């Protein structure tokens, strides 16, 4: 159980959080083994390669996903976190791939972020609820994408003729 700390009531708590689907990072362990082998064998390149891959893996592999009342926060290896405000999210999609289901968060600028939470269905439901609540409280953010696009049957239509990130339109 977490003890109350002075001033802890001012720190917002997530509405929902879930860990990354894979808790055991095999790439990080292999990279550290390569670095140790490089250290003991005197191979400087092997040491740098192992440390480099380990650092890259640490800072790019998600650990935890948290839903707040106005943002989705992805926690990577400390100290890196990535906060995606709901006003910057165009839409979310559930992808069913041969290697497992994933949630794709598409931003207004076209960038995409994959979410692989352990309980993906519950995470999607909680994220949808939080985004709907956010849109209800922020009428200016009623459109998730700045107001230039409309969502029709889970397909994005750009009313201003901008780039089509979902492929050619069939209109």
Please give a structural write-up.
There is one protein chain. This protein is α+β, with helices and mostly antiparallel strands and 171 residues long. The protein has one domain (15-158): Roll (PH-domain like), CATH 2.30.29. Helices cover 30% and strands 27% of the residues. The longest helix has 18 residues, at 120-137. The chain is elongated, with a radius of gyration of 20 Å. Residues 142-171 have low confidence and may be disordered.
Concise description?
Helices cover 30% and strands 27% of the residues.
Question: What features would you highlight for this structure?
Answer:
three-stranded antiparallel beta sheet; disordered C terminus; PH-domain like; 30% helix; 171 residues; single chain
């Amino acid at each position: 159980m977490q003890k109350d700390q002075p001033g802890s009531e001012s720190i917002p708590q997530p509405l929902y959080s879930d860990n990354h689907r894979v808790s055991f990072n095999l790439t990080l362990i292999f990279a550290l083994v390569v670095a140790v082998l490089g250290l003991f064998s005197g191979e400087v390149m092997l040491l740098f390669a192992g440390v480099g891959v380990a650092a890259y893996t640490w800072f790019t592999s998600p650990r935890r996903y948290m839903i707040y009342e106005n943002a989705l926060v992805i926690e990577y290896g400390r100290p890196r976190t990535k906060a995606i405000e709901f006003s910057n999210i165009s839409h979310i999609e559930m992808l069913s791939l041969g290697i497992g289901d994933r949630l794709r968060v598409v931003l207004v600028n076209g960038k995409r972020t994959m979410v692989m939470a352990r309980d993906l269905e519950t995470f999607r439901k909680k994220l949808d609820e939080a985004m709907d609540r956010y849109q209800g409280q922020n009428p200016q953010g009623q459109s998730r994408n700045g107001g230039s696009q409309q969502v029709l049957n889970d397909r994005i239509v750009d009313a201003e003729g901008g780039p089509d990130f979902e492929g050619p339109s069939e209109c």
